[in-house]
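Review form for a predicted model. The reviewer records the input and the model, then writes brief findings.
Reviewer: anonymous (R2)
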Amino acid sequence: MNQGFTYIETIPQRAAGAAVLDYLVEHYRHSTHAEWAARIQAGRVRIEDRTALPTDRLLPGQCLAWTRPPWEEPEAPLAWAMLYEDEKLLAVAKPSGLPTLPGGGFLENTLLKLVQRRVPTANPVHRLGRATSGVVLFARDPETAAELSLCLRDRKAEKIYRALVVGHPVQDAFEVNVPIGPIPHPLLGTIHGACPKGKHSLSLVRVLEQREATSLVEVRIETGRPHQIRIHMAAAGFPLWGDPLYTNGGGLCGDGRALPGDPGYLLHALHLSLPHPRTKERITLRCQPPPRLRTRPELASQ
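Model under review:
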């Protein structure tokens, strides 16, 4: 059991006049109308310094808080490794199955909490999906975090991933530039996917090995859209092997009820290169991929 958590937000202008219960049901779909009503009835929802009523009308700028009692979190692998550390930043190896940040029922069983037990001021400057393994970069102070975030935004960093995909691409190297934007999702409202009106996105793909029904690929992402590699490989006709969410074309699989954090696929952040925020010299961070994402020569050399 964890210690529970209090979620706090500032009411935006667009929610002006909404009833508390209606607002929570609409914006936090992980819980039903009845569950939100029960939380309010139990006094776990507050507006500013008072207990909220279901029919209270919200005003822009108000502080809305709701408390979740301690709960048993889903299991997750808790082993991680330090890849690089200095006075400004650190890079760690995240295992598949461990969320980077709290969410989806996870609070303590996250990479953030594990790293902060060793370096309390550390915060990640980017994130990997729960099932994705590999390099995650942390800043040790707010100034470094801002500089690293700007570096990533301005595309001064090189990111290379390994993935196992379904099928055999004809070309040994190709690019995918399908725009990525919101598409409908039956549980979440919208989710990122291949979208003609979405944002420009570019991935450069290199085939490393062809196997019986799959291919091992390396993907360098030139943009950093959410789920970019999963969406782009699916859009190209080679979805990640075992991905429960995205299918050919970059849309949703089956009934579309899978969630972004659902596991099954094999994706690994292999390489991250960027200028150091203090020295400005380029540093290269690398995390060895799991066995199924290694080439035959790599396996033979172990």
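Findings: The first strand starts at residue 5 and ends at 10.
Further findings: Residues 81-300 form a domain with the Pseudouridine synthase fold (CATH 3.30.2350.10).
Recommendation: see findings above.
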